[in-house]
Fold each of these.
Amino acid sequence: MAVKIVKGVLKTIALLIETVLLIAFALYSIMFVLCKGPSESARDLFVMSVRETSAIGFLANIFFTDEEIAAIEAKSDDVYIPPTDTSLVTIAAKDPEQTVETSAQPATDQWGLVDEDGDGIIVEEVHGSGYSGYMMVVLDPSRVIMGCVPSSFGYRGYTVAEMVEYYHAVAGINAGGFYDPNGQGNGSIPDSLVVFDGKIYYAELGVGKGFVGFDSNHIMHVGKMSKQQIIDADIQYGVCFGPALVVNGEMADESSLVSGVNPRTAIGQRSDGAVLLLVIDGRQVISMGATYLDIAEIMVRYGAVNACNLDGGSSSLMWFEGDYINNCASVIGIRPVPDTFIVLAKED
């Protein structure tokens, strides 16, 4: 009897090993076709998708040398981004004497959106081919600041929820990238320049693929700005990641929007100053993720004059009304980050 049990267990183990090997071979075959097949766009999509993921970035190295990977990733680096034209954004001045008008039917703005509950925040679901997510429109740009605790740099990061709570805010999204060796970083060290409350941190790390920040007039700037340009523009809050998605009312050159399919976070601003906060779910059956081109098109659809991609992947999260409203792609749970963009509570 014992012999039969042992044989049964061994057969089961053998079957499991065979199944795993068949699955591994099938996956390898698919990756081989993507990487070595005739489609250059399929190759680039595979490389960019895995390289944007800290946990499986090594898969690209199975099929390509470091030089070949660098050449694929560098395709978008030389695209020129003009300076932000701040005249394209006009923010209505607040009148302290003005009383809030109420009506039975909230007004629809020129982009077809309605602030039904009057809280100054509009949240809509967004859907596309292979992805879903949320767009948050914050009508008053002065309510959007960077949630960040510089005294904690190098010591600890904060989840989006923790940062929202720290500032007694009502909403927030993740922002810039961070030092994350082997996917084990604690979110405490930005991987590029950060501006908080007008002070620049980690300037020596540069701006990477792009910078996005708000000046003292709450106008958003995007581009590959130098430290001096950031100072001259009076930037108060800003992070780096990129690329720029929309620049001065025009979608960025498609050659700069080459990417894989992954969870995404982005920020934009309309001509009336309203701030657009976007998250796209990814690495899920119902939402594989989006490309840079996908989120650029979403930003244009919502009226963005300027927009920029932020850190994505397992960091992509949006907090609103006491909870995360999108799904976290991280298999290890909510990750801490060094900085966020948060929405302050509405003034009474």
Amino acid sequence: MNIDWSNLTFAYTKTNTIVCASYKNGEWSSVESRKSDEISMNSYSASLHYGVECFEGLKAFNGKDGKIRIFRPDENFKRMKSSADYLGIECPSEEMFLDMVIRAVKENREFIPPYESRASLYIRPLLISLAPQLGVNSPSDSFFSIMVSPVGAYAGGLDNAAKGVIARQFDRAAPNGSGRFKVGGNYACSLYAGRQAAKEGYNAVLYLDPASHKFIDEFSSSNFFGIKGNTYVTPKSESVLPSITNKSLEQVAKDNGMTVERRQIPIEELASFEEVGECGTAVVITPVGQIDDKPSIEGKITKSYFYGDKNHCGPKSRKLYETITGIQYGEIEDKHGWCTIL
């Protein structure tokens, strides 16, 4: 193994094993570890044809004290169970989910970046169907696997603010649809707008609520938050994925004496925020320095919103970021018991 820990990106790295189990005929198989990352599936799988699949993302960290910490895996189980129930596919129990996450981390321990690198081991639970199926129905089988890969930051970094554009002519999710579940189709829906935005020099796309296009929803793969004064504000919407990082940031904000508001955010309120950021497992926080409003992504700017210095994260966002990462790396007391310590 020859890895440059200081130069990690958010990319695939071959590790020792993936950990898997199958659900057939009403019961789960024993858990197995596989050295190959390849999965054999029937070409008629409902996951391939109809997008019947869900996944999760969480991380493990090498702490300051030499201990390994997995951040809030119980919350990832709850969200995967919700997604699986929505799709109508069998999900492993919480005990099985957590045991397999821990097993995958232990079997790939040497791929957890050292504490000094400030990088992490990304953990990807995946739930799909392998069996052949032609009709549009929930499959009776499930295949559950845990994959891991060492990663750096997904985008930007704390001191490289994103430049965003509002996607007025695109929706990431439908009203009363699958937006609040972590299913692959929701991410596929963001790809075209993302490519169009990149051509125009943007690296963040902000979606509005699909019902009225009057309120902020979320970024392509991250939740939105804004800070005004001593208040942390984030959207309340049925089409937004419930981010575990955002949930954690809300609690940390309260712990630091801030007021937290989860509510509808009118587009016009973008002008009143002092700091704006994207938040999620892969980034924790990416500050947003500018958001442009246009009738279309490739159209002329009608209004621009600016936040702080594009080369520096705002002070309150930085405090929240440092608190979350401090807990993850064992530098700050984990008073809420969020970390599973190995």
Amino acid sequence: MTEPKVDALWEVDADTMSGWQGIVDLMAEICGVPAGLVMRITGNDIEVFVSSRTQGNPYRVGDRERLVGSGLYCEHVAKTHAPLHVPDALADERWRQNPDIKLGMIAYHGYPIASPDGGVFGTICVLDTAPHDLESRFDRLLDRFKVHIEHDLVSIRRAQELEAALGRVQKLEGVLPTCQYCKKIRLPDADEDDPASWIAIETYIRERTSASFSHGICPDCLRKARSGS
């Protein structure tokens, strides 16, 4: 197994959160279980990000555990990047000591939720207090919900990247102190007498946007070069 690649903290908007709440509620209802969850990796922890509003659900939003070494079902899913199906943990030597049993949850079925950069956002899962062969009937359901959430994460990441790009463009607005001879730009709020505060315009723009430069000769300069003037 490999350690899960921990993603940065995600900011999920209210409309998306409402949609995910509907997913876990429906998931728990259709599967006939007390708990449907979306779990999120945050730093070194894994936390309950969305929890179904179902009777008998012991999981509360914000509950968290250390991820690595926890023995949780979801730790295994995050590490392996693969689904996990445990019909009855009490009858399974590997899982009979896992922490969720303290909450009475002995049946588990979960999927990893991938983030757009190839990391792991967290997991989506259902749990039951009784032996339950969840895989045979509900595997495709969880898979489709997982894909839906992953599409939402792609949209969120694109919005974040657009916002960051707009921020970089805004930094280029306003008055830029420019040397009238060499055309270098002085860094904002820097000492104009400090040589290190003046940088090439290509460097200034490259560091603040996704633009890159190639070089050629404009028609006016080409004519001057050919005429020797």
